[in-house]
Specification:
Distance between the termini: 137 Å
Number of domains: 2
Shape: rod-shaped
Helix content: 40-55%
């Protein structure tokens, strides 16, 4: 009898320990699994190429998809574990209620009852540990997913910036080619002068006949000084005038260039025949298009201001050579 009482005391002690463990919850969880690898960082000392950006973007996409999928798996597993915890918890509470212990069925029944409670306790403890681990992993994965999405956004912006830079470079190269090609001989001789200076004979002789008597491209009083642009091989003239003053063609011709170019700003090049050209630059507006046939005195655009006060920059070229415009204006 003493021996049976001792075993009964041991079983009762085990039940008390199991109940205490259930009340206190699970032990600390194991660390979450390793997240998907991130794409290798690019060398910060040089700009990324379009191909490198594309590879990084694809890698970031893969990471985002993997992390998103893992987050979904965690959610589904967490739901299953939570259901298991609730079922086992209810069973555990039901078996430990006062009056339900099988004391009247003998010692063996009591031992079996204790063993069932112990199994439920271990199952609950394992589920609680797993739930805690899943919660920690969910937080870690959600954080990495946020970082991956931010990385995708950064790479998208870098791709957009690179595309804009490439477009700007191509546009600049196209302008430079157009500016140079404007002075190239097209294999034909054009003579303009249907509307021009008051002397029809001079108009019929062409632009070269106006050397020393070329009309000014802007009307009214103006201050003129010699100037030169960095990319020019000869002198030009700066003509100070109020902002927005109309700039007119000094002779009939065809518009060969009408765009922004390097340090010239908004520029119009007019071909006047026999490889004579005038360049009107530092404009605020351009009112003609490439290919337009214009008459003498026709509006080209308006005077602009690049930061040094409103003024027109004017050149005369014969072929690709920049000649002194003062000789043409007779000043």
């Amino acid at each position: 009898m003493t021996r049976s009482r001792s075993r009964l005391a041991s079983v009762t002690s085990a039940l008390g320990v199991a109940a205490l463990a259930f009340g206190l919850g699970a032990s600390p969880s194991a660390p979450p699994g390793a997240p998907p690898a991130q794409p290798a960082a690019a060398d910060p000392k040089r700009p990324l190429t379009a191909g490198e950006l594309e590879r990084l973007r694809n890698g970031a996409d893969r990471d985002e998809r993997a992390l998103d999928a893992r987050l979904g798996e965690i959610g589904r597993e967490s739901t299953l574990v939570e259901r298991r915890i609730l079922a086992r918890g209810r069973g555990y509470v039901r078996l430990t209620r006062t009056g339900l212990l099988p004391i009247g069925d003998g010692f063996e029944a009591l031992v079996d009852h204790a063993a069932r409670l112990e199994r439920l306790h271990h199952g609950l403890e394992a589920d609680l540990e797993r739930q805690k681990a899943l919660g920690a992993e969910r937080i870690a994965v959600a954080k990495r997913l946020e970082q991956a999405r931010a990385r995708v956004g950064t790479l998208d912006e870098e791709q957009r910036l690179l595309a804009r830079a490439e477009d700007a470079l191509r546009s600049q190269e196209e302008r430079e080619r157009a500016f140079v090609q404007a002075f190239e001989f097209g294999g034909h001789t054009a003579v303009y002068g249907a509307v021009g200076p008051s002397d029809p004979a001079l108009a019929a002789e062409g632009f070269a006949a106006l050397r020393g008597r070329l009309p000014f491209p802007i009307a009214g009083r103006t201050e003129i000084r010699s100037a030169r642009r960095v990319s020019s091989d000869g002198p030009g003239l700066e003509m100070r005038a109020p902002f927005g003053t109309v700039v007119r063609s000094v002779f009939a011709g065809r518009v060969a260039f009408a765009d922004t170019y390097a340090d010239y700003g908004k520029t119009i090049i007019v071909e006047h025949g026999r490889r004579h050209y005038t360049v009107s630059a530092n404009l605020d507006s351009i009112d003609v298009e490439v290919g337009d046939e214009i008459t003498a005195g026709e509006r080209l655009g308006t005077v602009g201001d690049s930061g040094n006060g409103p003024r027109l920059y004017f050149e005369i070229r014969v072929g690709k050579d920049t000649v002194n415009p003062s000789d043409w204006f007779g000043i």
